[in-house]
Amino acid sequence: MRLKDKVAVITGAGSGIGRESAVLFASEGAKVAVVDVDESAAQDTETRIAAAGGAAFVIRADVSQAADCDRMVRETESAFGRLDILFNNAGILLPKDDDAVSTPSDVWEKTLAVNLRGVFLGCKSGIPALRRAGGGSIINTASFVALMGAATPQVAYTASKGGVLALTRELAVVHARENIRVNALCPGPLKTDLLMKILDTEEKRQRRLVHIPMGRFGEAREIARAALFLASEDSSFVTGAALQVDGGITAAYVTPL
Ligand code: NAD
To answer: Strand 242-245 relative to strand 180-187: parallel, antiparallel, unpaired?
Structure first.
């Protein structure tokens, strides 16, 4: 049990990476606050955890709203007594996100509000609770696009994830002496709703696969295992890192055929 007696908040836990992480963390002994804007999706995750004998409860919250983030931390502390792990994972990728000329301003605003402000607000509300617990681990989900550019643009998403990485590094430095570690996950393209809704034809999927040395999309549970490493004492000397879990996409210049 790598997270025995730990309490975790996971945002975006109704689907994909967040759901797999919630289930994995609970199986490793953590008590999990399953946070999502989609309450019924979060409920499904909670049901899976409960069926396996784990401890979890649902909080409906929109991470782009300060009051929701405050409540998410407050309810977690009152249910489970403390907060040790804050996984700021919720994120969106909107269909009209394109190049700078074509992307509508409201798509830019909405993407930055969820993906970047959401991480900032999670940290704003969560860090005082981590201090009260004597320290802990913050994991922020960035992306491989925070590290490289693409000719198929999604500028709002890419800029938001670059911001998550920069924010993560700075918070890691600021809070290092408080026993609070802050790391970013940089997943590659995954077989989750977020990406598959955008890559909705075989041609689009193949165009993306060409760039991945492993020649396949990642699974959400492969990212959850990396999140578990960052959440647990296994990563006790790791802070400010950008952990790439991406099938080699950020290492590639040319991929094998
Ligand atoms: P997903 O769409 O399967 O799950 C995202 C979850 O976040 C959903 O349950 C959704 O309801 C929730 N959510 C959306 N907006 C929210 C809000 N405002 N407040 C609270 N919850 C909200 O996506 P996923 O692939 O599991 O993505 C999780 C994270 O991983 C995101 O930050 C995403 O940007 C990042 N990521 C995904 C990929 C990929 O290829 N799928 C690659 C790199 C990074």
So the answer is: parallel
